[in-house]
Structures are given as C-alpha cells and as structure tokens.
Amino acid sequence: MKFESFSFAPEILSAIADCGYKTMTPVQQQAIPAIRRGEDVLASAQTGTGKTAAFALPMLQKMFENPRELQHSNTRALILTPTRELAAQVAENINDYSKNINIEVLTIYGGVKVATQAQKLKRGADIIVATPGRLLEHLLACNLSLSNVEFLVLDEADRMLDMGFSTDIQKILQAVNKQRQNLLFSATFSTSVKKLANEMLEKPKVITADKQNTTAATVSQVVYPVEQRRKRELLSELIGTKNWQQVLVFTATRDAADVLVKELNLDGIPSAVVHGEKAQGSRRRALREFVEGKVRVLVATEVAARGLDIQNLGYVVNYDLPFLAEDYVHRIGRTGRAGKSGTAISFVSREEERTLADIEKLIGQPIRRITVAGYEVGSREMLLKQIQKRRSFAKKQQRSDNAGEQVVAERNMQGRRVTVGKSSSTVKYKKLK
C-alpha cells in the first residue's frame, strides 16, 4: 500500500518521497488510519519497522489541517522517549517529514543546560520530543505547561518502564490536558505496559504488526563460543580478517566499553564509545564520526539499544549478552532495518550459555554456532565435573577437619590441655597440673 492511499497533503507526500519511502510497512498501514480517525492506539511492532512514521505522519497531517499559532511555554504534541539518542532521532525524522510545512519541533533531554532549554520553551513549539526526567524538571520549574496538548505519544514505552521512569510518567500524565489523543508504541506488551495502557488509553485500537519478540527476517544471526578473556582478541581478528567496516558493539558495563575501545584503538581499529557517563556532546560526536566512517567501531552500553537509527548498519556484535533476553531483540534490531540485510553476532562464554538458552527460547529458534580455530571453549561437561570433584574434595577435607575437632573436644572433656599443630591430623596434649 502506498502513502497516497491516505490522502496526505502534497507537502507531506513530497517530504515522504524525499525520505525514500515508497510503500507502507504493516504497522503504518494499521496505525495511520486509526490515528487519522482520532482513536487512541496501542501498537506493538519490532524495532526498525517504521513506528516513528506510523505516529508522526498522521499527527502532522491533522496539525496541518488545523493550524494554530505557537503559544508561549506550551505545545500541541508531546512525545516521550526513553533515551536522548532516540529523542534526537525521532525529532530529526519529524523535521524531515514536516520540512514543507510550518511546524516547530523542540527536543528536551538531559546533558544540555536547563536554562538554554527554558528559553526555547518560552517561545513554545508545535511538537516537543522529550525524555521523562528532564521534562519533569521543566514542569516543576514552571517552564512548561501541558494544558494545550492534543497528542500524547509514548514511544518505546516498555523501555521507559524498564528504566524506572514509571513515577515520572505518572506525574506527567497528571499534568497533561485530559482532552487529548493517546498513542502508545512499544516493542513488547509486557505486564507493566498493559497496566499503563489501561490507565491512559480510552478504547484503543490494538495493533500487533508482528509476532511478539521475533527478530527481523533480514537479520542473519550467529553465535561464536569463546572464553570471556579472549573476546577482545576474537573481535579484532574477525573485524580484520572479514573486513567489517561499520560495527556496533554492545557491552554489559560502561567500564567494559571504555576498556574495549582503548584496546581496539591500540589494535589499529578506529573506535569510539557511547554510554551514560559521556557528555551529550561527546555522544553526538562519536555517533557522527561512526556514521561518517571516521571510526570503524562504535562501542555502546544498553543506552543505545533503541536510540540509534543508522542507515545501512551492517553488523551488530553482542560482546556481552544482555541481562534480559528481550533486550537481545532490541539490540540486533539496529541492523537489518528498512528491508536491508544485516548480521548479528554474539560472543558467548561458558557462563553465558544459560542466557543464550533463554534468548533462543524467547525468539523461538536456535542460533547458528561457529567455532573459530584457536578460540575453542573447553567442554562445559568437563568443567562441571571438575567443579563437582573440587566440591567433593572440599567436603572430604571438611569431614577430616571435623574429626580432628571432635578429638580435641573429647580430650578437653577429660581435663587435658590440647594444642593443635600445623597439620590438622596432628594433635598434641599433656596433663593439666
């Protein structure tokens, strides 16, 4: 189905064409007419399937049909996202869609001076894209009113709840104009998302464009078994021998990300890092250099799992498997977007085998394994036998020590002074005077 089927304004259709969009994705086909009719929407679709256009395009059309002047410290549409990166990406997309119409878009997130944002808020905006924490700061400081909001969008709602924004979202909901259209988009319909939907949506149109927790058919998945201590070495070898040019690598912690970037640069592989402790300017610069090809590898923590939209990204590497199996789907969704092919690689140590099993159960399929010569992982069964053997020895030793302690106790009872020597089996004693 083409976008012309829904009678968008010529100005919007022209912008859509300039973005290279030709046919609608399943979530767009279902969400756009519902939003145009003014219905609340609860939509689930895997990442990379055009969710931003699904809610932004009909919203822009309705605002274009009913133009209003900017109002100081207010907005017509509020879009909440979990991360700065996603907020910036959503705002950029909306600016692309609305370039031929008079729409003011403003982003509000941490890492930027509050005073600078407050000045921009005073002028007002048609659309504000924000992270919950920073938006709440401005609400509490009376820099912003939400009394005229016509559209409230929660993008990646499940991620916001996972990150602990539930309380902030509830406070924001209390401040928003009650006469509004609500659009809740989420990668999954978790219990917490369903509870939030029941609280804020009125007879919503429920859209499920894909089977829950599935991965895109355009993403080829593979697992490399490797010892934890040799992951960096294997990563460098694969990048070099296979000539990977644009690689997004996920680590479990910020410290691990910093160490990995340092090691990769020492190996002659230009790399940059993105995580929560980096300043916003540093994060933007790292992403820009990665997109421009100035660095070959971008190392990130979970903060980037849903906020990055990099065209033609060829490879995603799970250097460490995510703590939650669901996050695997979001991570690898950074590649294979918009119908293009991509590859997701996961390094799995012995300790991560259980997590891998959870991931395979979640996505409903086994992931192909490739063993690289020289990086083989020792037999897991042999490891368990060794652990059991050590435990058995420890128990035996403990029984021997307990026996020695019993001898000591018995001789003390007989009124003897007891001294235990260096060997647990040697007991010396002499009569008390």
Brief summary of the model shown:
Residues 1-29 form the DEAD-box RNA helicase Q domain. GO terms for molecular function: helicase activity. With 433 residues, this protein is α/β, with parallel strands linked by helices.
CATH superfamily of the largest domain: P-loop containing nucleotide triphosphate hydrolases
Helix content: 40-55%
Ends distance: 104 Å
State the name of the first-level CATH class of the largest domain: Alpha Beta
| Radius of gyration, whole Å | 29 Å
**Fraction in beta strands:** 15-25%
Record field, number of beta strands: 16
Q: What is the number of helical segments per DSSP (H or I, 4+ residues)?
A: 15
Mean pLDDT: 84
Uncertain spans: 404-433
- The CATH topology assignment of the largest domain is Rossmann fold
Describe the structure.
The radius of gyration is 29 Å and the shape is globular. α2 (26-36) runs parallel beside α3 (51-65) and α13 crosses α14 (353-363). The chain folds into 3 domains: 3-208, 3-Layer(aba) Sandwich (Rossmann fold), CATH 3.40.50; 219-369, P-loop containing nucleotide triphosphate hydrolases (Rossmann fold); 391-431, no CATH class. It has helices at 10-18, 26-36, 51-65, 84-97, 114-123, 132-140, 157-162, 166-175, 191-200, 231-242, 254-266, 280-291, 325-332, 353-363, 380-413; strands spanning 41-44, 75-80, 105-108, 125-130, 151-155, 181-186, 205-208, 219-225, 247-250, 271-274, 297-300, 315-318, 342-348, 368-369, 416-420, 427-431. The strands form 3 sheets. The chain has a 7-stranded parallel sheet, with helices on both faces. A 7-stranded parallel sheet has the order 10-11-9-12-13-8-14, with helices on both faces. Strands 15-16 form a two-stranded antiparallel ribbon. By secondary structure, the protein is α/β, with parallel strands linked by helices.
